[in-house]
Amino acid sequence: MIQLDGDSLTLESFFKIVEQFEQVSLSPKARERILKSRAAVDKAAQSGQRHYSINTGFGILSKVSIPSDQLETLQVNLIRSHCAGVGECHSERESRAILLLRTNVLAKGFCGVRPELVELCLSLLNHKVHPRIPTIGSVGASGDLAPLAHLASVLIGEGDAFFQGFRLTGKEALEKAGLKPIKLAAKEGLSLINGTQQMTAMAALLLRQSERIVDTADLICSASLEGILGSPKAYKEWVHAVRPHAGQSRSAELLRSFMQDSEIYQSHLTCDRVQDPYSLRCAPQVHGACRDLLSFVRKTVETELNAATDNPLVNPDTGEIVSNGNFHGQPLAFALDILGMAVSEIASISERRTVKLINPVFSELPTFLVKNEGLNSGFMISQYTAASLVVENRILTHPASTDSVTTNNEKEDHNSMGPISARKAKKIIENTQYVLAIEALAACQALEFRKPLKPGRGPRALHAYVREEIPPLDNDRYLHTDMERVAVMIREEEIWTHAHEKGLL
User: What's the whole-model pTM score?
Assistant: First the structure.
């Protein structure tokens, strides 16, 4: 059981709840803060004074006062009107992540909601009721309004949800889980939707994939280095100590480790090649720079996991209610664009290594890594696929975070576009997994031609794992199937897990 308090959620506990379905509860201290901030909202609602979102309309309509007998209707109408998302829906995993993070914001005690609302959110998590949330609709400021409204609709017995593998109406899902919808009180509707939780959830999920990708890229790179009879001298520790970027040092460390016990390298120590192409020699510098960018993203995400993103915010200690801009997604938008840039560069340099493997000028192996070249085309067209994915990534790395469009009749005149950054980053990751899969297949094929010499411990483990399911390419066959399978190995973290279990990472 993990207690939520809005202050102590870590990425580790985030993934335990999202992927391992760890049960959650509300911490007693958080409940105390929630009660205090709720008392301030109730006092404001009864004061006769105008307080944004408590007894007024929203956005440009905030000048409109709402009578006390219509405050519940105001909140329900808000949720219904904001359920305006379109397009593909988030996966259950993504929906669960969004629900968890919004629940954690409410648990922090600065939103002014009742404990009953937080408890219902916790019950949805514990019963695996996952709202059906369209991915498109948020501009990344004033909160992820449309996506979070679809989430909130299930809490009031409307909208759609997934439960036990079925798509149901929100009402049906609650009933089957033994739960009852809630009637929203003053401010609670806006508190459910006014935050960055779509962006933050996606950033957390994509961050882990990206970090795994860089480790996997280092491993695959070492196999490519062996394939073209490259040298690990450029990875020497002292070389990177005199340019002490943390990411660069880490990638160089891994590459040195992967190349240990290499018979292939020992076989060409006296060759006349002085240096390798940049895509291999500079791999620590490029991969490492990507690592450093991801470190920045991690810091941003870890901060946002426990951030109070709502408007207005309620101080539980003083009762002060302040209209503010904590809902603005600019930190996440920048971070997600940076994440996309980092992962895109991993694909870019990976494709260059594939080119070196299939080119006999560099590899001194059969053209396109196949016997009977001419009769067979080998890896010729798989490199075309990698090239097309790299170009698509370059287009997708155009930042969304530096764009903006005005909404709400000019009241909301600067928006972060963070959710667009997230969707782009997700596609970049998918593309990069394919590019790395192609390099891995080409590298493993190159190692076939180096037998009986054995590669270093890293390439040896990679080759053995891939060969458990995919045989060498002796004659042309459908490479699509091979590429898809290795992409799954990367996407599902199979290669990373295997390397980790072998003590390589």
Answer: 0.96
